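MODEL INPUT / OUTPUT PAIR
PAIR INDEX: 1
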Amino acid sequence: MTRSYLLGSTMALALLAGCKDDVRPPAAEPETPAQGEAHQPAAASASAPVPVEADAAPPPPTQERARALAQRFMIVDGHIDVPDRLFESRAKDGSLAEDISQRTEGGDFDYVRAHDGGLDAPFFSIYVPADLQRRKGASKRYADALIDMVEGIVRAHPEQFALAGSVAALEENFAQGKLTLLMGMENGSAIERDLANVSHFYRRGVRYITLAHSKDNQICDSSYDRGHKWKGLSPFGRRVVAEMNRIGIMIDVSHISDDAFAQVMDLTEVPVIASHSSARHFTPGWERNLSDDMIRRIGADDGVVMVNFGSGFLSQASRDYYDQARTARRHFMSERGIDDNDHPSVEAHDQAYRAEHPPVLARVEDVADHIDRVVELAGIDHVGLGSDFDGVGDSLPIGLEDVSRYPNLIQVLLERGYREADIEKICSGNLLRVWRAVEAHAAAAAPAR
């Protein structure tokens, strides 16, 4: 995710965009495979075909079919930054400036748009800014405050939202038509060098932890930090990996360095997730995205890559644009001796830059390209959705501008020959498989009572 604490303003978020009805579809599956064995047409049924009436209604258009599937399938999104968005905009008395149980003017998420798009279970990011690492206890306090806020939203709107700490609880909420607010913690710095805090955050509802964010921390090195203090995992970080396995918290390898990734994969006894990462193949040399070998390794170990929607994650042309915009911003600030990213003159510069240099945005088809790439390398069982809504500013691709737009992606996948069973795996099935495996391992490790 890109953050206002780094740059401030919507433009600033975009500048660092790579660094924030039971409707049943037609029974027939698409005939054309997309790529690889996963998308081969199903074998013909041994039973006799059912004759079609001459006046039978034609199947709905692909767009309508996609909308129906979005409502029928459970959609889990691996990373949405609503907590940070709400926390940063809260009033002086601590009350929230936005009511996400209603349609909101700002942001990428609210209940109404989520319902329209078929989103059932976003992992709300409990994001911990890296600069808090310098003050003992600050990261944990911040994470707890965000969790308190998410719990407060659910208490205030129990008919719309629910929490879930297990796959079984999530499935029960889905059956009841409630939108489940899951929680994943972005930046393990909140563990504060105390292994007991892994259990603390599990009890508070956190079900995955992104080990680092924008800076190397006490657990491991970050893909964004050139220091790479630990050359991978720290000794404490190795203990954290083992404890997360034991407790039942999924390990998120987004944001961590390549060396840290390799060491995590060697140590973990359960599959991992990349909650909001895309394929480095399309952004060569950018460590924040996953290399082909990393994607293969996640697949071989039965994990899941959840594709990020930010344009800077999807397209080299978009990455180049945001890199150039960031450079221009830094030059402007340096020339004037400004170190406050929220300074009015910086905001004015951002607007002028955008007017002269319109953003280069990816498209929904680019997200499908990344899904294709993961499927090609790892298989259909190892890809999911990790949008980074509310975390990548205004760099979202054309066709995926907010949580109401998941049907657009499903439509592209249908048009590329993905079968409905495959799309259901992408929407939630693959992530739920990993979560169940982590739960089962923790249950087996628990002492007998």
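PAIR INDEX: 2
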Amino acid sequence: MTGADNKAVPSGDGRTYASVTAAYWAFTLTDGALRMLVLLHFHQLGFTPLDIASLFLLYEAMGVITNFLGGWIGARFGLRITLFAGLAVQIAALLMLSAMDPAWTVFFSVGYVMVAQALSGVAKDLTKMSSKSAVKLVVASEEDGLLFRWVAVLTGSKNALKGVGFLLGGVMLEGLGFTHALYAMAGMLAVVLAAALLTIKADLGRSKSKIGKRDLFAKTREINFLSAARIFLFASRDVWFVVGVPIFLYDQLSWSFDRVGLFMAVWVVGYGIVQALVPRFLRRTRDAGTAARSAVFWGGVLALLPALIAAGLTPGWMPAGFGAGDAPAIILVGGLLLFGVVFAVNSALHSYLIVAYSDADKVALNVGFYYMANAVGRFAGTLLSGLIYQLAGLMATLWVSAAMVLLAVVLTLPLRAPSRDRAAVTQT
């Protein structure tokens, strides 16, 4: 960071924020690894795509509840409490999964794993809400896009680490097996939780004013539209990402577990790196007004990509010169990598906007509400990923993805600069 940047960040809060972020990074590794472990392990056991999607439904559903109430808890009691709770609950979820018996019936196994995944969903969103809310509290100035850069770096690094977690999950499943991989991750998080208890003392995010029930629902116009757009943006990714593509690569292209994990890792790591770099090539995005206009443009570009991939996979649309055996892999992998780049730009813009639209005193409430919408989108995308793939195949999930991005773009059209930005423009 530059000297100017350092002046905008109180040193004590900066150290606290660094500890919060380090804990979140460690958690993110286990979250990505756990997703690949569950997906590939239960596919290997013979679970159908819809069964596998069901394993993640409570994970996403609990994210809706956790973000809704977690923002209120963070605003009332401080983000330190929500972070510690998230780490502890994830450890419990990993240990619960490690106790699963392969001899159990499919019905009981699905129910048991859904409960464990529900705990993991609570843990994920508690830690995410804590870390993303904290950035608003330690960046004292939005001058020269400082807030945009910090939010982009945090979100991008988190997604890059989640991608590493995908690779880690595939490798651990091959090398350690399901149960021992879970033990290893639980042990690592226990060490991280102990370190966080010793280093994080400040109660970041506790509101100075009284938080009532009405504050859970009373949001500004911009936050409501942005949250609605977020639902469809993330549903457009998860409708193919959660079940369809990994199983297609394994079943139809005969990829190994670690190769599937590697691709998913490369996709998410690349997505995270691009996300962190977005402020560098969108240099004119210095406030919420310009970011909102950029979100509309990049959303339109994103909507084209899944449609083009689906068209390319349709028989008779194959590009000339491709061999029949190579074409699906080239079109799918190349297209999804490009989708990841453009999706990263959209996600970075949206993540900045929710923080920019929030007052510091209520940032945990607004971020919690926004990521509740994010969880609704992931829930819908997860359910549709298994259902549509099982009924109609991968191409259908991609067409649905394109339609969802278009809906997200429509919902970003009413966004504008918050009142303080509009006033500043008027005065200049």
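PAIR 2 NOTE: Residues 1-12, 419-428 have pLDDT under 50 and may be disordered.
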